[in-house]
Structures are given as structure tokens and as C-alpha cells.
Amino acid sequence: LALSAALGAVTLVSASTAMTAFAADKIQLRMSTPATETDFRSQGLATVFADGVSEFATYEPHYNDTLFKQGTELVAIARGNLEMSITSAQELAKLIPEWSIFTAGYLMRDAEHQRKVFEGDIGKEMYQLVEDKLGVKLLSVMYFGTRQLNLRTDAKITTPADLEGVKLRMPGTEAWQFLGRALGANPTPMAFTEVYTGLQTGAIDGQDNPLPTNKDKKFHEVTKQIVLTGHLVDMNFLAFSKKTWDGLSTDQQETVMASAQKASAEITKTILANEAQLVDFFKEQGLQVYTPDVDAFRNRAQSMYLESDFSKDWPKGLLERVNAVN
Ligand code: KDO
Fold first, then answer.
1. What is the pLDDT of residues 275-307, one digit of tens each?
2. Which candidate in 57, 116, 139, 250 could, as Cys together with 53 as Cys, close a disulfide (CB 3.0–4.6 Å)?
3. What is the rounded distance in angstroms from the CA atom of residue 129 to the CA atom of residue 121?
4. Radius of gyration, alpha carbons of the chain
């Protein structure tokens, strides 16, 4: 008996070794994003995450909207056509209205506040909602940077009134358009991959993104100023197919989770370090970079959000709980 049990074990081990020996047997993890290959999130995932799961999975990133169009990734995952994406509160809010609370301007204070909110009870509850309603698992939160206004016009912007009539490109969901209006601008939707040309041709007057993204996309070549409104401490989540997740062993699930969290923590660190240096970079490129009357922007945005239809969908007491996290 002892011998046959031992032989059985040997057979099992060699079978599993044979399985992992061929890449073809590995689980394919396709990730679709509008971001470039040089984006810090792309880089962090392609190294830390890909290495972490490499024993049993092949991480296969698709950049610049080449696999799925911006904003369609979550539905693709839910339908079983994609395994992973870098998603946002704005994309989640389109499908799960409770999530619109995290699209509000001037809600999150900084990267640390964001991390504590999503790594605590609030994150657990809000992630569960996504899993139950969409069949998508959110593995981790990462800081994407603080969004600033970036304009091709040169008139100085001090208060929201100065943005009247300014055609501001915002990403293509209602939550983003509302944020543009809350800043006082005239928002217009446009895909991320079209923004550079939009700025170059004057189809739009400006756009908003974090400083590292502005540099990565070379928006400084086609704009004249950056107004440090800091209107959204932006964050992304690593979205993962629940169907794929359920097919993994417990060990593999732990590895996927740990690799996602490690990659996200490193991405956050890199983005924070870069943001701290980039004001000087843009000034060297000849752009005006300055801080407007941030209180004027904050007051207008916060009161517009509280009076908006979005706020009717926010879970009761959640705003107070988010504000109380420190
Ligand atoms: C953008 O379209 O401006 C935006 O920054 C919005 C983010 O939520 C995120 O989708 C991001 O684009 C893409 O990942 C491309 O960097």
C-alpha cells in the first residue's frame, strides 16, 4: 500500500511538472487598456505582475485600445471575452451606480487616503458589489495620479468662471462629463487615443490627466499651460475575470492576488515620485504651470456633486465613512 501510494504521488508530480513545462498549457491572461506600453501602470504590470504569475499564467497585454475600445473592457470581461483590464470608478459607475461616489471631484485627499479606503471595509463592500453584479474581481487599487487641467489656450485660469466656454476633452462617460461641468468648463467626450490630435488641430481647447500621463503622451508638445486644480485624486483597479479566478487553485489565486497588490503598490510609488518632479519638467518645456484658486474649484464641485442625481445612488452614510478614513 505504502509503495503504491508513493508511486501514485510520483505519477502526480511528474504529470503536473509536464503540464507547467509548456507555455501552451498556461492560463492566458489577456489585458486590454487604452494606455501606452510606456505608461507606468503598463510597465509595473508587465514586470511585477507578469513575473509573479509566470509559473502558471501568461500575461498578455494589449495597449492603445488595440484589443477592446476604452470603456468596453468590463463588459468584455463579464461576457468571458477578456481576462483583465485596468479599470476606473467612472467605468464601474456606468454599470453600478453606487460606484459614482468615487467619481466625485475633490473627494479623495491623496494616494494614502485612497489606499486606506480601498484596503479597508469600504473597499471590501464595494469590491463585493462588483463581483456579485458583474462577475468581475477587483484585485487591487493603484494610484493613477492627480488630474490637472492642461490647455492649449494661454488665458490665465484662476476660478471656474475662467473656464466658461472652454472646450475640455473628458473621457467618454457621463461621470466624466459631469466633472468637466463641475469645473466650469464645456466638456466634450473623446477617446484617450485621439486626444493628442484633438489638441494639435484645435478640435478641443484642453484635456485633464495626471502629470505622468501628460508626459507619457507628450501633450506638452501641443499645449501651453497646466493649471494645478488637483480636481481628482485618480485611481485605477486591476479587474480580473471571476470565471478565470474560479478556475485557479487556491495557491494560484493567492499568487495572482499577491502579484497584483505588489505591482499596484510599486506603480503607486513610481507615480508619486514622478509627480513630484514633473512640474519642473513642464516648465522646462516652456509651459506655464501654476496653482489657481483651488478653494473656488473645490467649493463649486463639491456642492454640484451633493445636489446631483449621482448622489442619490450613493450608499447611505458612505460619504461620511470615506471622509472619516484617515
Ligand atoms: C483618460 O482617458 O483620460 C484616462 O486617463 C481615464 C482613466 O480612467 C484611464 O482609463 C486612462 O485614461 C487610461 O488607462 C489611459 O491611460
1. 999 999 999 999 999 999 999 999 999 999 999
2. 57
3. 13
4. 22
